[in-house]
Amino acid sequence: MTAFAEGFQALVQRDLTWTLMPTVATVIIVAWIIRSTLHLRKIPGPWWAPYTRLWLFRALYSERCADVYLQVNRKYGPLVRIGPNHLITNDPLTFRKILGVQSKYTRGPWFDALRLDPHNANLITERHRQKHDALRAKMAPGYQGKDIPQMEHAIDRNLLTWLDYIQKHAVTTQERHVAFDMARSIQWLLFDMVCHLCLGHPLGFIDQHEDCYGFQNVLETRLPIVEKFAIFTEVNTWIKMISHIPIVRRVLPSPKDKDGIGAIMGVAQKTVNARIAQGIPPKHNETMLDSWLRNGVDGSLAVTEVTIALFAGSDTTATSIRALLLHIITNPLVYKRLTDEIRNAATSTPIITERETKSLPYLQACILEGLRIFPPITALRERVVPPGGDTLNGVYVPEGTNIGLNLPGLLRNEVFGPDVDVFRPERWLEATAEQRQRMDRVHELMFNWGSTRCLGIRLAVMMMGKVVVEVLRRWDVVALRPQRPWRSRCHGIFLQRDFDVRVVDMEGTVR
Ligand code: HEM
């Protein structure tokens, strides 16, 4: 072949390639659009959601995903398609089916993003059913207080330190006007309470009343990023693959860090080492950590578990207390009835007992209603449909589909009455026995169900009751800026700040 002919042939081939490329690309895109449209086609949802994960990304980016999830189920029904392989449900029966003990559903790949170490799961991130159940059996007695009779005492001690702090620094008098940021302060209280339960001592957050370990700062800066990456689950696999590279490992939290999550791990590591060296104290005289170690939790896993407990237990409960207080102090009818109940009750001093909080019906109704109107977790915590698929709300859903659990949507179920969007604790007291049972059966799902049911329910409810009672029986609390009482950003959990209040003495002169 002549040089001319060869050159001509190459030109034709190149031109052909250039002509074919857009055609091939178009065929791939069309095939992908058709596939995405047909897959899960019987399930309604926003028209553009099936094609990418951008609908989910946009919901998270808005920082108000709780509202977005609530509205999407209201608009399209109990089972809605919000991504290529992602559904969302607010249906109590579906929740129960997916989470039940006998269920074959598993935690989805989303949970990998919550791991502190990409190679090792902990109780909250373990996706393998048997491994999870084995670990849970070792950890549950500690969390539930069965091994720790001192649990309530530890809570009371920290609460007293916190109340003393308020009395000294936060109460407004005629001479001193204080804008007290309840959001931050409650966070410090909860960090110390949960750390005390885990390790046997507080971390000093209440005394210093600041972010001593930069823990909160790390949460506030990293959580919004982690939350968004978590929906691109492939990223977790890549991180796992490259996490052996030293420079990448340096980004992950380590007990050697001076601040942030790593610093907390460092504190936990020291206590774990000391416990292992000196031997675990006798049963019934211990911390959660002692209980876990005695039950066979490995030392390095225990370090991670303490850190995770601090995160899982403190943030959720702090948000619940803040939201409850906000709804009480901005609602005169509730405020009056609750303070009357609390101030007229003959209960122990200086701190009400857990048992006594249970005997205050209006307080209990407020706690239930606060959790219902403002659940502290909005992350979808997706579960994966088991092999063989399943039928949900009358529609076949193929195996491998991710089902998101919409807590804000669940808790506005019609079972709670026609005014579900209103904070009205009375609904819990007015309900007939049969209605109340139906309400309870939906409400209890907010702590999950079955083998991943929250292990901190008793703690959370106890802490909420005690804090509300002890604040409102000492002082009156007023929102400083009723037109914008706080800054609350929703990232699966909530980041809240600037909840400035005026705390005034009940017998004081300022009111
Ligand atoms: C109002 C406060 C709280 C709420 C609403 C809440 C809610 C939840 C939910 C929904 C889960 C299930 C996560 C999943 O999808 O798998 C969970 C799990 C868990 N929670 Fe809580 N929680 C609260 C407070 C606490 C506290 C105070 C602690 C302990 C200090 C705690 C410890 C745990 C643990 C260890 C798990 C994992 C259980 C397992 O996987 O077996 N929680 N919580």
Automatic annotation (TrEMBL):
Keywords: Heme, Iron, Metal-binding, Monooxygenase, Oxidoreductase. InterPro entries: Cyt_P450 (IPR001128), Cyt_P450_E_grp-I (IPR002401), Cyt_P450_sf (IPR036396), Cytochrome_P450_monoxygenase (IPR050121). Its cofactor is heme. Coiled coil: none annotated. SUPFAM superfamilies: Cytochrome P450. One of its GO terms (molecular function) is iron ion binding. Heme binds at residue 454. Pfam families: p450. Belongs to the cytochrome P450 family. This is Benzoate 4-monooxygenase cytochrome P450. It comes from Aspergillus kawachii (White koji mold).
